[in-house]
Every structure is written in structure tokens, then in C-alpha cells.
Amino acid sequence: MHRESLIRPLNIAVFGSGRGSNFQAVLSAIQQGRIPNADVRVVVSNNSSAGILAIARANGIPAEHISEKKFPTPEAFTEHLLATLRLYDVNFILLAGYMKRVPVRIISEYRNRIINIHPALLPKFGGQGMYGMRVHEAVVAAREHFSGATVHIVDEEYDRGKIIVQKKVAVAPDDTAESLAAKVLAIEHELYPEAVRMFAVGGVLLDEVVE
Ligand code: GRF
Questions:
Q1: Is 118 labeled as catalytic in the residue annotation?
Q2: pLDDT band (50, 70, 90) for residue 7
Q3: Measured between alpha carbons, how far is 2 from 155 in angstroms, rounded to an integer?
Q4: Do the beta carbons of residue 14 and residue 192 sit within 8 Å?
Q5: One-character DSSP codes across the chain
Q6: Mind giving me the DSSP string for 151-178?
Q7: In this predicted model, what pLDDT tens digit does every residue of 186-204 receive, in sequence order?
Q8: Which residues, 6 or more positions from 171, have their beta carbon under 8 angstroms from its beta carbon?
Q9: Which residue of 28, 94, 178, 185 sits with most ligand 1 atoms within 8 Å of its CB, as the best mutation to test the pocket?
Q10: Whose alpha carbon is nearest atom 5 of ligand 1?
Q11: Could you give phi then psi for residue 133, rounded to 5 degrees?
Q12: Which of 52, 87, 177, 184 is 20 to 30 A from 120 in CA distance terms?
């Protein structure tokens, strides 16, 4: 098949639970024309007061608060999430600080089309419970010389999907978890837009990432 024929516009849904700075970085890159062929269709959060929803609203992007707690069964929640994705014609999902597990049905329906950014150099310092400051605390405690950020495909195993791109940052001897977190976040804001751009221009061919 011809390479170009695999490229289709990215209709993106962003899932997040918190402040949304990575979403903001990707959105700014799209708005400034640095990511062609991509559009954020909807932002979804389990947390009604998340900054990520406020950013979406401020930019005229549909902001959906969808919490599993409001549904009688996990299946009903998944069904609603899928219906929302279809409603906005979503074909690509970005996790940006999403603190919930993505239902397996959605992972399989969007196979190789869900990516996440993790604030460390996977496969180190990932897995269940490794999120937020815990990651940076563990990196500092292990006296690592480098940390960084990783963008990877989301599959059924936490932080284990295929790595798309990574960026390193040096850990200084006097770095604390807080100072390291700030350094890593700054490179996340460069790396996530770059990763989305790779998908948008066809730099990552979907059949290349099929196991
Ligand atoms: C980032 O550090 C990201 O790596 C992790 O969650 C954090 C989200 O931050 N998955 P923000 O909401 O994008 O500011």
C-alpha cells in the first residue's frame, strides 16, 4: 500500500485528570501550525474541576466530564465513553495526566491509536503506582544520572506499550524530586507535540507498531 494512503487526519480526544499543561502544549502547537493534519475534537476528564477541562472550554473545544462513578456499571461507563468518541469522530486518543485506567474495550477499538506521556525513561520507573511526584522521588533515590520523558502506545499493561519517542534530561547531584519534576515537565512540553506531529504526518506508520 502506498504510504500516503495510510495517513488520515488525526481527530484527537484528550483524556486528562489534572492541570492539563501537556494538553496546552499540544494545543498550542496545533494552533501555531506546528502540527498539521490534527484537530482536538473533545477533551474528556473524570474530574469536573480539572484544569484540562477549563483549558478546553477557554479554547472552544468540547469539554466532557465523564466519571465512572456516575454510571450503574463499568460497561455503561465504557459504552458512554465510546459513544462520545464516535460522536466527535475521534480516531486518536492522547492521555495527558489521565489517572484512570482506559477500559480494555477502548484500548482494543483504538489499538495503536492511544498514546501516553510518562515523566521518566521507561521501562524504568513505570507501572502501577508510579505517577506524579512518586516517579521523581524514585529517580532521585536511585541516584540516576538521567531521567526524561517517554511517549508510548497504550496497551492493556500499565506503561508497557511500545515506546514511540523519548527525551533525556540530566539529573544534577543536588536535584530534588521537585526540581527534577520541573525539568522533566519542560521537556514533556516539547516531546508530546513532537510525538503527535509524528503521527499526524505519518512518521509512525500504524502497521509498524502492530506487534
Ligand atoms: C505529566 O507529568 C505526565 O507525564 C503525567 O501526568 C502529568 C500530567 O501533567 N502522565 P499535566 O496535566 O499535563 O500538566
A1: yes
A2: low
A3: 27
A4: no
A5: --GGGG---EEEEEE-SS--HHHHHHHHHHHTTSSTTEEEEEEEES-TT-HHHHHHHHTT--EEE--GGGSSSHHHHHHHHHHHHHHTT--EEEESS--SPPPHHHHHHTTT-EEEEESS-TTTT-STT--THHHHHHHHHTT-SEEEEEEEE--SSTT-SPEEEEEEEEPPTT--HHHHHHHHHHHHHHHHHHHHHHHHTTSS-GGGS--
A6: EEE--SSTT-SPEEEEEEEEPPTT--HH
A7: 999 999 999 999 999 986 7
A8: 139, 140, 144, 145, 146, 147, 180
A9: 185
A10: 97
A11: -65, -20
A12: 52
Enter the C-alpha cell of residue 172: 544534577
C-alpha cell at 164: 514511540
